[in-house]
Design goal:
Radius of gyration: 25 Å
Strand order of the largest sheet: 3-12-13-14
Number of helices: 3
Structural class: mainly beta
Amino acid sequence: MVPDSHGAVARNREIGTICCMPDKTVFSFPHSWLLALSLLCFFPGSGVALPLADRKKPQVVANYLKGTEAETPEKISPVETKTVLALMADKPKNTYQTEPSVEEKKTGSFTTAGVQETAFLIRGTDPEPIGDIGLANDGRLIVVAGKQVVVDYLFNGNHILKTTDLNQDGIREFWLEGGWTHMGESAATLKIMQFKGGKPEVIWDFEQVESLQQCRPDNPDLHPVSLTSILYQLAESKNGWPTFRMDIYQGPCEAESGRRNVKRFRFLRSGKIENE
């Protein structure tokens, strides 16, 4: 039940079921009709459409404050690893001289609707990765249809958070994460990309979603702060795509244990994370 601007209660406007009109006009119905209407208002059953207002509520799509939940990883067989590495156009070693490795796998339609494709995230192929050892942004996205590579994309990232079909066109988008760490500071980035027809396109760039400072027990006079975020998908759309909002939370520095006291973080503002 959702109160309108006059305080009257209306429900299920989309299917025409109204229990009390906004102007509080009273209509006379047979007792059996009134009983049925009251049951729909106060005891909604399965199969009844949600109120439009409920469907317009922002939906959490990533919670960095409490820790994002990764999708269930898909198993990568040794044969797949060998095959996809052989299909790569080139295999240069990065500056840390690590061997290329297949880290993640996703299945779905990524370039053409209705076509089953497989995407692989490969690490260790960027000659000049950004970031320190262990958190280098040296991601390479390979999408294979049958035995053909339809996407070979090098990006500043190291993880596929998830895939979605935001505009319901039958083609899934990638939520690509990146990050860096240096001298007690670290950051995480996120952008949504699609590869319709094999062409890369950024749908939404959240830029930094976390900016974390490590605690400095050797210098208690310093009071570094950390910024993290919760991302929401909004009901409003733009050019056929949903829009998003990022709520930023500020808290104390990150302990060496990595355990975060969420209760010590407070809402700061909505917008972009900038260097405070």
